[in-house]
Design goal:
45% helix, 288 residues, five-stranded mixed β-sheet, 10 strands, D-Maltodextrin-Binding Protein, domain 2, single chain, 2 domains, alpha/beta, globular
Length: 288
């Protein structure tokens, strides 16, 4: 059996497809799987670049930097198709978009899709603060009177309301993207497979991942408690079950966009990011 290492992001929506594999509800005759739970998107991106994991869930915007080394799993591209998962821009003050451009922007990593979409759709900022843990971005926004692109809106709003804070919703990345792209899906995250494994093993893992994802989506009552437990332990935070449930519900929709639509959104994203000199060019989107 081939031993592979999966770097699983400890975030509900990205974690749930792997839980049947973690819990051995779905088993493999081809792979001996080792799991590493990674707390932040930026750490995931760093580990993928360094090839410290065979399979992981990096930002869609990282792909131009890793295109020679990884396949993208075609059934596992998280793509926003509505305002529910469309990254609202939250601020303590009621700002205009022009005022946002002169504000302190809080992001959870430089290679994240959220930050790259900000650069594409809004552009300027006065100051940049990087807070790797998504759950800590809220505290930074309140403390520094900053502006946050809320990748995880449900979690952000839950934490803010616990603090007695009701932020202003300035705009939505989705609304701006929809207008720019002509309503194409907005790429957010991916599952990638180290191409050194070879296409045959990559396809075998794809079949395994698809079985695990399908099991998770049809047995959510089994999956949720495990998801909550891993999230709370790795993030060291007492995250609400209802928030995790809502987050997974939104992400299930993101992960089930048709492949033709997914590809259309990715092609537009990588093309315009290259033309705007924001990301390197992509020669081929190696979907498998």
């Amino acid at each position: 059996m081939k031993t592979i290492k999966i770097g699983a992001l400890a975030d509900s929506g990205d974690l749930y497809p792997f839980i049947p594999l973690i819990e051995k509800k779905i088993k493999s005759d081809d792979f001996n799987i080792e799991f590493e739970f990674i707390p932040t998107v930026q750490e995931v991106n760093d580990k993928v670049v360094k090839k410290e994991v065979d399979i992981s869930v990096p930002s869609a915007s990282l792909y131009p930097y890793i295109q020679k080394d990884y396949f993208i799993l075609s059934s596992a591209v998280a793509s926003a198709v509505d305002g529910i998962t469309g990254m609202p821009i939250l601020a303590m003050d009621d700002l205009t978009l022009e005022e946002v451009k002169n504000s302190n922007i809080i992001v959870h990593g430089l290679n994240t899709t959220a930050f790259n979409l900000y650069k594409l759709l809004i552009g300027r900022y006065r100051k940049l603060t990087v807070v790797h843990r998504v759950l800590d971005e809220v505290n930074a926004m309140v403390k520094e009177n900053g502006v946050m692109v809320a990748v995880h809106e449900l979690k952000a709003m839950y934490d803010l309301r616990k603090m007695g804070v009701e932020p202003h919703r300035i705009a939505s990345m989705w609304d701006m993207w929809k207008e720019l792209s002509g309503n194409k899906p907005m790429p957010m995250g991916t599952v990638v497979i180290n191409s050194d494994m070879g296409e045959n093993y990559a396809l075998k893992f794809k079949e395994l991942y698809n079985r695990s994802k399908k099991y998770a989506e049809s047995h959510m009552e089994e999956i949720l408690p495990v998801d909550v437990s891993i999230m709370r332990e790795v993030q060291n935070s007492d995250i609400s079950l209802e928030v995790i449930k809502g987050t997974i519900g939104a992400d299930v929709k993101e992960y089930n966009v048709s492949i033709d639509d997914v590809k259309s959104g990715m092609e537009f994203f990588y093309d315009i990011m290259y033309r705007r000199n924001l990301l390197p060019g992509v020669r081929e989107i190696r979907l498998i």
